[in-house]
Amino acid sequence: DEDGLVSVLISWLRIVLCFVSMGFTTLIWSVIMVALLPWPYQRIRQGNIYGHVTGRILMKILGNPVKIQGAEYSNERAIYICNHASPLDVVLVMWLTPTGTVGIAKKEIIFYPFFGQLYVLANHLRIDRSNSKAAVESMKQAADAVSKNDLSLIIFPEGTRSKNGRLLPFKK
């Protein structure tokens, strides 16, 4: 029907606008990150600001309503453990976590166009899930960086996105 076609076209337009917006903000923050190469923890903070700006823009474009509960705790240092049921999870987490939050992701994130390269430039942490010993060492380094630099931490312990929205088993 005609209404269904209009909805599909609007959805596709929103998705395209999201990619264009993310590409634009990523380009701007990439330049900032390169200028901040000598200051790794300033890059984390700038990466968070990128996430706040980009996350808010993308959620507005998508038109998804967001209800935030517990906002009074949003500036406290914490460990954010998130499930990964939707591609929007990362956008929401980038937007809602405080400045001074470092993330841990699989090492393959570098291959995600634009976002992966900015993730590395922002000095966020990557782990090699295929090598348990290296992964444990990466987690120890993350704990050290978090405590020494008064950072918060984001982790998606499922390790991959759920295809049905249900919680997956956590990675070791």
Automatic annotation (TrEMBL):
A Pfam cross-reference name: Acyltransferase
Family matches, as SUPFAM superfamilies: Glycerol-3-phosphate (1)-acyltransferase
Transmembrane segments: 12-37
CDD domains in alphabetical order: LPLAT_AGPAT-like
UniProt cross-references to SMART domains, sorted A to Z: PlsC
Any one biological process term the GO annotation gives: phosphatidic acid biosynthetic process
Source species, domain of life: Eukaryota
This protein's GO CC annotations: endoplasmic reticulum
Entries under InterPro entries matching the protein: Plipid/glycerol_acylTrfase
GO molecular function, one term: 1-acylglycerol-3-phosphate O-acyltransferase activity
Assigned keywords, A-Z: Acyltransferase, Membrane, Transferase, Transmembrane, Transmembrane helix
UniProt keyword annotation of rRNA-binding present: no
Residues of the Phospholipid/glycerol acyltransferase domain: 78-172
Name listed for the protein in its UniProt record: Phospholipid/glycerol acyltransferase domain-containing protein
Protein's organism: Genlisea aurea
